[in-house]
Amino acid sequence: MPPVLAARGLEKRYRRVQALAGVDLEVAPGQLVGLLGPNGAGKSTLVKIACGLVRATGGTVEVAGAPAGSVQARRALGYLAELFRFPAWMSADEVLTLHQRLTGATGGEAERVELLELVGLPDARRTRVAAMSKGMQQRLGIAQALVGGPPLLLLDEPTSALDPAGRRVVRGLLEQLRERGTSVLLNSHLLSEVELVCDHVVIVDRGRVVAAGTPAELRREGGVEVETANGTRRFADARRADVPRLVRELVAAGEDVYEVRVVTSTLEEAYLEVVEE
Amino acid sequence: MIAIVLYGLRESVRRKMFAVVVVLTVAFLALYAWGVHAAFRDTRSFVGPGENQLDPDVLAGAIVEGLAMFATLFLGAVLSVFLTLNVVRGDAEAGLLQPLVVRPVGRARLLLARFAGAAGVAALYVLVVYFATVGITHWAGGWSPDRLIAPGIELAAAVVVVSALALAGSVFFSPIANGIGTLMVFGGGLLAGLLGEIGRAIHSQRLQSIAHGAWWAFPFDALYEDALHRLTVDTTGFAEFVLTLGPFGGSHQAGTPLIVWSAIYLGLVGAAALVAFSVRDL
Fold it and tell me: Same domain, yes or no, for A143 and A248?
């Protein structure tokens, strides 16, 4: 199946600053892709180009087969900006109604109720944005992005203002979306969150993709630890494939082996290793 | 598109902007009624009817209605500027614009809808206040403009031009800079009209040229002066001369080319705003 989002050789220059320097990225249908990178790496710029908010200076981006920014492309996506606000005088229901009208969504009240329940705001229909906490507004923002059931969701730091319980709600929501077949590009600084929910991770630094793969692929094996009667023995250069040989050698040497652990780095360690190179 | 127009209108209503405008406008109209009543009474006391070919009711009526038109134009311009000054850059900086722009409505339709909402409100406001002042003037002194409808429409059109300038400015400037800039342009246009009036009085060709150039650069002043002209277009004699001096910029016939140019100008300002907005990174 063709990708829902495909960026090829994407470049963006803001006067003297090269924000993106030839980024290639794909999001397959139903795939949850995490976009990682330090501040100023170009992640938000990439997302904004995909939404049509920012014009690329080179390369192409297609959303559901249509050029990014076109009406067809915008019909196929939902977007939650990193910095966004809804008018303080609007209620949650009014915000969703406005976005239903703008997208031409026909779900009506039933869709609005469902979306607010989905993001954990079932009782906030009549609550004005002015009376909402930042976390509630962020959940409403996610509900807004889901109006009309777009096949692609672009979420720029969707959990930055959420408490741990709110983050768990969003994680659950992302997993539900994956089950429904919705593709998600998740731009987040929370590596643990990305590690938990994403199928694929792309790490961007200085406008370039510096690493990409599944979370498991990005995590590095960091040796093998063996619990023996004489204590823990570390084999720093060993890999998973070396375990049978190591155990054989230790047993042959008269050691009693109680446990073997293949040590892998976390995504965070892998990330730091890549961006600090 | 209608959703965006309604969004803009409801934003104005919910932010209590209309409540403030309505209260202040009622206060203005009440003061106007008081003042115009006194103006008719006092003018009759120093110019007897028919003396020196100067009808006191025409004199008082045309002058106070002209003043009311200036006030109406000013209030309408302020309202239109405040409705449009933050439409693009201000709303983008606040994070209000992005959720709307990513929707499949198109930037051009979004901008046109915001313009239609703001300009529509400002134009309606000007028409309501204009006809209210005409009614008050008629009630107080029995005087009515020689042309009733056209001056109101021209006044409303002048405010629509100001709205377009503020909207275009919102693409480039932050709200405060845009608001200050648009009101300065508005004031500059009216000042140029006043300079033209002085130029005609002292026979200065240069001042008249400046005023004429300003008419083409900022046609809201031309529309305003043409509206003033139509108030007393059938008045003749000494009264005509006195009234030509007019309040705050005088009354002069703009002529068809300038009125047509106003419509073209509106289109050009709108097109410039659309082009700039369509390429702007948000």
Answer: no
> What are the extents of the domains in chain B?
2-279
Q: Which residue has the tokens 């002085």?
A: B198
Looking at the structure, do residues A124 and A170 belong to the same domain, yes or no? yes
Mean pLDDT by 10 residues, chain B (282 residues): 77 75 92 92 70 74 88 93 91 91 90 90 94 94 89 94 95 94 92 84 87 87 88 74 61 80 92 92 88
Q: Cβ separation of B103 and A48 shorter than 8 Å? A: no
**A104 contact B CB<8A:** yes
Cβ of B103 and A77 within 8 Å?
no
DSSP β-ladder status, A66-67 and A221-228: unpaired
Q: Are residues A158 and A228 in the same domain?
A: no
Which two three-digit tokens encode residue B104? 């499949």
A213 and A246 in a common domain: no
* Residues in chain B closer than 8 A to A86 (CB atoms): 96, 99
Q: pLDDT by residue (tens digit) across B40-91? A: 888 877 765 555 566 788 888 888 888 899 999 999 999 999 989 988 999 9
Residues A75 and A51 in one domain: yes
Residues A165 and A188 in one domain: yes
Closest CA to A171 of A7, A34, A14: A34
pLDDT for B253 = 78
In chain B, which ranges are continuous DSSP H helix?
2-14, 17-46, 56-84, 89-94, 98-101, 107-141, 149-172, 175-201, 205-217, 219-231, 237-245, 256-278
Instruction: Name B46's Cβ contacts closer than 8 Å, sequence gap at least 6.
Output: B56
| Domain shared by A118 and A130, yes or no | yes
b/e sequence A126-141, b meaning 16+ C-beta within 10 Å: ebbbeebeebbbbbbb
pTM confidence score: 0.81
Write the CATH number for A70: 3.40.50.300
The parent domain of residue A224 ranges over 219-276
**What is the number of other CB atoms lying within 10 angstroms of the CB of residue B34?**
12
Residues in a beta bridge with A225 = A234, A261
ipTM: 0.80
pLDDT in tens, B145-171: 888 899 999 999 999 999 999 999 999
Q: Verify that A120 and A197 share a domain, yes or no.
A: yes
CA distance A186 to chain B (A): 17
